[in-house]
């Protein structure tokens, strides 16, 4: 392991890439079925059909494995959609989040990861990095809306994107409400309306 580098954060190349893919998919399976508390490196190695020594040497800890899984999920996520309007872009974002959270496998996986993050600092940091990557991927659509004059100068792109996803995660984790496409569309419309009204404008580093 490279000095100062967490296990699981160095990207492998060549033949080891296949091992990484197998182990990460096995980790997804284990998390989906058993949750974070049931995640065990030896079990993941068995599922991936690789040696336990390889898994322990490569990832070191369960949190190291989860961090690498979240990094991979961020990189594999669909790129942003550009429709030419802020509402269209935010709707595409909301529907992507909605489809992900209602997918039988992905929804269960995110629930497990979020639950783990509430009690583990390193998992929480990895989850924060995941969402930071996704927010930065979609932020340009808000900047483009500023350039088109759809929303005021100084609108914080990251706050707008977060405002789209927040109610969808609320439905998933708290309210138990219906998380369907119309719900996603309403979240996008609310965020777009708030952005046009200047709710997300920051003045002097503070939100107006």
From TrEMBL:
Domain of life: Bacteria
Keyword NADP on entry: no
Start and end residues of each HTH tetR-type domain: 17-77
Keywords for the protein's UniProt record, in alphabetical order: DNA-binding, Transcription, Transcription regulation
SUPFAM superfamilies per the UniProt record, alphabetical: Homeodomain-like, Tetracyclin repressor-like, C-terminal domain
Xref: InterPro entries: Homeodomain-like_sf (IPR009057), HTH-type_TetR-like_transc_reg (IPR050109), HTH_TetR (IPR001647), Tet_transcr_reg_TetR-rel_C_sf (IPR036271), TetR_C (IPR011075)
Family annotation (Pfam families): TetR_C_11, TetR_N
DNA-binding region: 40-59
Protein name: TetR/AcrR family transcriptional regulator
Gene source species: Streptomyces olindensis
Higher taxonomy: Bacteria, Bacillati, Actinomycetota, Actinomycetes, Kitasatosporales
